[in-house]
From TrEMBL:
<feature type="transmembrane region" description="Helical">
    <location>
        <begin position="215"/>
        <end position="238"/>
    </location>
</feature>
<dbReference type="InterPro" id="IPR056739">
    <property type="entry name" value="NfeD_membrane"/>
</dbReference>
<dbReference type="Pfam" id="PF01957">
    <property type="entry name" value="NfeD"/>
</dbReference>
<feature type="domain" description="NfeD-like C-terminal">
    <location>
        <begin position="357"/>
        <end position="413"/>
    </location>
</feature>
<dbReference type="GO" id="GO:0016020">
    <property type="term" value="C:membrane"/>
</dbReference>
<protein>
    <submittedName>
        <fullName>Nodulation efficiency protein NfeD</fullName>
    </submittedName>
</protein>
<dbReference type="InterPro" id="IPR029045">
    <property type="entry name" value="ClpP/crotonase-like_dom_sf"/>
</dbReference>
<dbReference type="Pfam" id="PF24961">
    <property type="entry name" value="NfeD_membrane"/>
</dbReference>
<dbReference type="InterPro" id="IPR052165">
    <property type="entry name" value="Membrane_assoc_protease"/>
</dbReference>
<dbReference type="Pfam" id="PF25145">
    <property type="entry name" value="NfeD1b_N"/>
</dbReference>
<feature type="transmembrane region" description="Helical">
    <location>
        <begin position="245"/>
        <end position="262"/>
    </location>
</feature>
<feature type="domain" description="NfeD integral membrane">
    <location>
        <begin position="223"/>
        <end position="338"/>
    </location>
</feature>
<feature type="domain" description="NfeD1b N-terminal">
    <location>
        <begin position="22"/>
        <end position="172"/>
    </location>
</feature>
<keyword id="KW-1133">Transmembrane helix</keyword>
<feature type="transmembrane region" description="Helical">
    <location>
        <begin position="268"/>
        <end position="285"/>
    </location>
</feature>
<dbReference type="InterPro" id="IPR002810">
    <property type="entry name" value="NfeD-like_C"/>
</dbReference>
<keyword id="KW-0812">Transmembrane</keyword>
Length: 416
């Protein structure tokens, strides 16, 4: 029994000697300076532990300068760097393509894709003229140098920039862009073990970002930044309409602070911001100015254009507001303006039929009447009015209002 316990203890304490962790992190969303710092800290920790460094990647793009720093980290790393584009449906496009190609070992899941790394101008369109050639040459040289270093297909890598091509996992494997395709963790571990000739037992160990990093990643979502901006605008508007509670003011201030923090993470195109503000102003103006829908059309057009180019700025690659969010916001603001407009028109019509003009045709009851002068008091619509008539009327009769002369109503009796 004692021998069995000693053997068991020996195996338990010697297990770490015969096993090795794969230092694993997940990078989702936009590539920013915080992404670079997160990767830098963890790759340094993995280097001290002499581990394999694995990045599970799913990104539409990011800031080019931060991407260059991450690529430099990967190319200079003393430990194996593995990028795994996962889960199925994930992507490594735009800036993400540079990061993926710079790894020692690039893996993708089925259903993922890579590529589309063409630079754009501040309006989100292709750059024109000599500047286009300069930017394209610089970006092309960048991705070609990565492909040369990692033994990838230089021609296809170049076309990702020049022609903005995008490849599925299988297409990328066939064209020597990706090294292998895996769909399970067991298969992933086995591939890494064989690739780097590791004899120890491998296991994945995931490292989570700190609270600060999680907040930064949350604020680096373009859709979140847009929502924060619109919440701030709506809260300020509501505070002016319903002052005194400070609830909307507090929400607005918090949204503005978060928005300002967010645009320090992802630079924005201020032309896009001005178009968004102008679009909202035009939509509000439609409520008060009769333009037969022209202000609404201009406002929605400005709002859509502003949302589309808000993150189209030099140094940003693949960062944009998702099309469904743009459509939802336009429909929301259009619906709100339509609703408010209907309420204003309804209130205007209601006002036009109140007061003295709205008394004509109303039915009242005679409270007091002088038959000689044919004048008296009647109750109409909850109010007591002075009235006169050309017909004989008695107290308690029902009368209909025919005319309004100053504060005197001319009425006639309604036969019972």
């Amino acid at each position: 029994m004692r021998r069995f316990i000693l053997i068991a203890l020996f195996l338990i304490f010697s297990l770490p000697v015969f096993s090795k962790e794969i230092y694993t992190i997940e990078v989702n969303g936009i590539i920013t300076e915080f992404t670079y710092k997160f990767i830098k800290v963890n790759i340094e920790n993995a280097s001290r532990a002499d581990s394999v460094f694995l990045v599970k990647l799913d990104t539409p793009g990011g800031i080019l300068e931060s991407t260059r720093k991450i690529v430099q980290l990967f190319l200079e790393s003393k430990i194996p760097v593995v990028v795994y584009v996962s889960p199925q449906g994930a992507r490594a496009t735009s800036a993400g393509a540079f990061i993926a190609l710079s790894s020692n070992y690039l893996l993708m899941s089925d259903g993922t894709h890579i590529g589309a790394a063409h630079p754009v101008n501040i309006t989100g369109e292709d750059i024109k003229g000599d500047m286009r050639k300069k930017v394209e040459n610089d970006t092309t040289a960048f991705i070609r140098s990565i492909a040369q270093k990692r033994g990838k297909n230089e021609q296809i890598a170049t076309e990702m920039v020049i022609n903005s091509i995008s490849l599925t996992a299988r297409e990328a494997y066939d064209k020597r862009i990706v090294d292998d395709i895996v769909n399970t963790e067991e298969e992933l571990i086995e591939k890494i073990k064989n690739r780097f000739n590791i004899k120890e037992t491998l296991f994945l160990k995931k490292y989570e970002p700190s609270i600060t990093e999680k907040i930064a990643f949350f604020l680096s979502d373009p859709n979140i930044i847009v929502l924060l901006l619109l919440i701030a605008i709506a809260s300020i508007f509501l505070e002016f309409k319903m002052p005194g509670t400070f609830i909307f003011a507090s929400i607005g201030i918090a949204a503005i602070i978060l928005f300002l923090l967010a645009i320090n993470i992802i630079p924005i195109n201020y032309l896009g911001l001005l178009l968004i503000l102008a679009g909202i102003v035009l939509l509000i103006a439609e409520i008060f100015i009769t333009s037969f829908g022209l202000l609404s059309i201009a406002g929605i057009s400005a709002l859509a254009a502003g949302l589309y180019i808000l993150f189209s700025k030099g140094g940003n690659m693949g960062i944009n507001v998702s099309l469904p969010i743009i459509i939802i916001l336009i429909l929301f603001f259009g619906g709100v303006i339509l609703l408010i407009g209907k309420l204003v028109i309804k209130d205007f019509k209601k006002r036009s039929v109140t007061g003295t003009e709205g008394m004509i045709g109303k039915i009242g009851e005679v409270l007091d009447w002088d038959t000689s002068s044919r004048k008296g008091k009647i109750l109409v619509h909850g109010e007591i009015w002075s009235a006169e008539s050309d017909t004989d009327i008695n107290r308690g009769d029902k009368v209909e209002v025919l005319q309004v002369n100053d504060l005197m109503l001319k009425v006639k009796r309604i036969d019972r």
